[in-house]
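Section 3.1: Structural characterization of target chains.
Under the original work plan, the team committed to producing a structural model for every single-chain target entering the pipeline before any wet-lab resources were allocated. The record below documents one such target. The sequence was received from the expression subgroup and is listed exactly as submitted; it comprises 142 residues.
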Amino acid sequence: MSELKTKKNNVSVPAFLKTIEDEQKRKDAKELVKIFKSATDMKPKMWGSSIIGFGSYHYKSNRSSQEGDWPLTAFSPRKANISIYLMPGVSKYSKDLEKLSKHKVSKGSCLYIKRLEDVNLKVLERIVKKSTKDMQKMYPDN
């Protein structure tokens, strides 16, 4: 059975935020923590070395033997983009994404934005809130 490599840990989220070299990305990440806390009513936790997650659920793949715990929703301030993880899949929120403004999506669960100033923050918070609630319905025991 294969386990996920990215796991929740005890690294301080504020300490991680201080390590983000790009000043704008650091400010955006701090603002995203506030947005996600408001949308989820959960405290942020570090997952791996660069993902800030909120809540968790137990993941078990139908296609492989991989399983483990994963955040209900999360984001990561990567060099190229800020990756936002919408675990039910980005396609589920296509109507809201039309109102978000400048962004890209993956075929799976990732929403990519360059800077927060490029998007409608109220729409982003609504998407994160919906995604989290959808995950809680899918995984009620977590």
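The beta strands are 44-47, 51-54, 57-60, 67-70, 73-77, 82-86, 104-105, 110-113.
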